[in-house]
Amino acid sequence: MDPENPRPNELEAPAILDRSGHRISRRDIDPDALKVLYRLSSHGFTAYLVGGAVRDMLLGRKPVDFDIGTNAHPNQIKKLFRNAFLIGRRFRLAHVKFQGGKTIEVSTFRRKPDEEELAAEREEQEAKRTREAERAEETGENSSAAPLDDQSAPIEAEGRAEPVEPEGEQTSAPSAESALGPGIVISAAETAGAAVEASAQGPAAEPTPLRHARPPLKPIAYGTPREDSFRRDLTINALFYDIATYSVIDYVGGLEDLEAGRVRIIGDPDTSYTEDPVRIWRVLRHASRLGFAIEEKTADAISRHRDKLAVCAGSRLFEELNKDMKSGNSRPFFQSARIHGVLPKILGAVGELYEASDDRFDKLTLLLGALDASINSGGSPPSEVMYGLLLWPWAEPLLADIHGDKPIVLYNAFRTSGSAALIPKTLLLETVNTLVIADHMVQALVDGKMRWALKERPRYPEASRITSLLVEGSFGNCEDPFAMIYQRRFGARPRAHPRRRKRRPQKAGPPSTPLATAA
Ligand code: ATP
Ligand code: MG
Q: Who has greater pLDDT, 320 or 90?
């Protein structure tokens, strides 16, 4: 080891903890993941449990998901499992499906992307962001209404589709070396590229036969287990559990960091954050979730690179945001994001407000604390409630000043706030509608003037729960906690079936505004 830099370098032998040296038990591994591991192994492939599952089991925590790394080629994985589906274009991953919708992700070991691949990836991310912005401009949306599983992550991330290469590059079997052990798989793409080159140099040298040829493709960036661990984000996320020996393999010093309660980027943080700024988010997530410290260089580099978050694809940032909102750990995550100056980078003006105002941020942490408590005790609050809580401390003063079409004004205020995380249009609309009803309810609990017709609105139940949290500090444990509070304060029982007004003919126009006249 280099005394100047005590981290393992890319040539050193890994640290290996054998079965008696760690606490991972096969009983804690998902049985379907175990089946996949054993099947790969019994067919002569290396099969490791990788990523967060190893980290969490070493810490005695329940893993969120079980991902598998192997030297088997995607097509070999597909052949071994009838229930496997290949996803992604460049780095194909296998999703092995089990009953109940469970998916075990199996990916072939990869190496770090080279400069050219990184540049292509950055270009793709920028192009995606531009497309999102153009679409938003055209449709007046906050976002592309991207589904939650939008797959636009850069080439480093596990389980993400790759946007670069066309289909068909992985039809060849891996080289003998790669099937037996470490080594880069040489793909059909290379052969295809070579064929294109050869025919271009042939005696006829006619341009016409090449008319439909695609440009030569780079070899697929598969790699060895060692290379695979060095291309990951954090040392604690790069540990492998080998099903053949039941040992834990550590190429990057993750065991030591796990022991010390420390989150550390693998390699140079400046390089790593430049390659993929979302790793800043991941550092904050894992440190806050585990209660770990952030290693000094890993933390220092955040301020130099956090601006880059704003150029990541907005749908990918939303996906990250959504993970934290649903994690039961949103409050510590937002606290950590504030300390590291990241909130304005991901949430634009909303984040700026939360960074600048202690009062607004304190309110946010109270609400997120309640959200976390609900999730951690088995609840699954609807998205409109989660995002309603996230936006309430920002929306509250705005709503007091809006006298016209509250949902639309609030919707547009968020849309123009410069948020890098793109909340899908439908969710944002539902969220602002929920907030406008909640705002009316809060006021009604002061002056007693409730428009009970709102009970017929689709977002009434969500608004009722948010209002209960805002005024009583809990979501309440009945169907309509707002009505209960109202009844307690004013004694008037709301009518179950309020009189319906005659519908006015609907105007054509931008997004529906159910509360335009009601609030
Ligand atoms: P969780 O418990 O939330 O699932 P995780 O660490 O398993 O945490 P995943 O998003 O499931 O996170 O990713 C699986 C693994 O893929 C990570 O542990 C890490 O090794 C690798 N990974 C994910 N995202 C990145 C990234 N942006 N850069 C490098 N490696 C990544
Ligand atoms: Mg995971």
A: 320
| DSSP sequence for 113-159 | --HHHHHHHHHHHHHHHHHHHHHHHHHT-SS----TT-----TTSTT
Judge whether 240 and 225 are in contact, CB under 8 Å.
yes
User: Worst-scoring range by mean pLDDT, 202-206, 424-428, 499-503?
Assistant: 202-206
- Quote the CA–CA distance of 321 and 303 in Å, as a whole number: 19
Torsion of CA 322, 324, 329, 334, to 10 degrees: -110
Q: Which ligand is nearest to the CA of 56?
A: 1
Q: What is the mean pLDDT of the chain?
A: 81
- Among 58, 148, 235, 237, residue to substitute to test ligand 1 (most atoms within 8 Å of Cβ): 237
| Count of CB atoms situated within 10 Å of the CB of 452 | 17
* Model confidence at 225: pLDDT above 90: yes
* pLDDT reported for residue 58: 98
Whose tokens are 């068909």? That residue is 168
| CA-closest candidate to residue 161, choices 188, 121, 213 | 121
Buried/exposed code over 346-371 (b: 16+ C-beta within 10 A; e: otherwise): bbbebbbbbbeeeebbebbbbbbebb
Domain boundaries, the chain: 6-114+220-260, 378-490
Q: Pick the ligand that lies closest to the CA of residue 158.
A: 1
For residue 194, how many other CB atoms are within 10 A of its CB? 11
* Burial tier of 113 (Cβ tally within 10 Å: 0-12, 13-18, 19+): buried
Between 463 and 156, the higher pLDDT residue: 463
pLDDT confidence of residue 311: 86
**pLDDT at residue 279 tops 70:** yes
Task: Write down the residue that tokens 């912005």 correspond to.
Answer: 133
Q: What is the pLDDT of residues 366-419, one digit of tens each?
A: 999 999 999 999 999 999 999 999 999 999 999 999 888 999 999 999 999 999
Q: How far is the CA of 326 from the centre of ligand 2 (A)?
A: 14
Determine which residue's CA is closest to atom 13 belonging to ligand 1: 158
Site to probe by mutation for ligand 1, drawn from 232, 278, 320 as the one with most ligand atoms within 8 Å of Cβ, is 232
CATH class of 6-114+220-260: alpha beta
For ligand 1, atom 8: residue with the closest CA: 52
Mean pLDDT is highest, among 20-29, 129-138, 149-158, for 20-29
Confidence of residue 282 (pLDDT cuts 50, 70, 90): very high
Q: Which residues line ligand 1 (CB under 6 A)?
A: 51-52, 64-65, 67, 156-158, 232-233, 237-238, 276, 278-279, 282
Q: Backbone phi, then psi, for 473, in 5-degree steps? A: 80, 10
C-alpha to C-alpha distance for 184 and 108, rounded to whole angstroms: 10
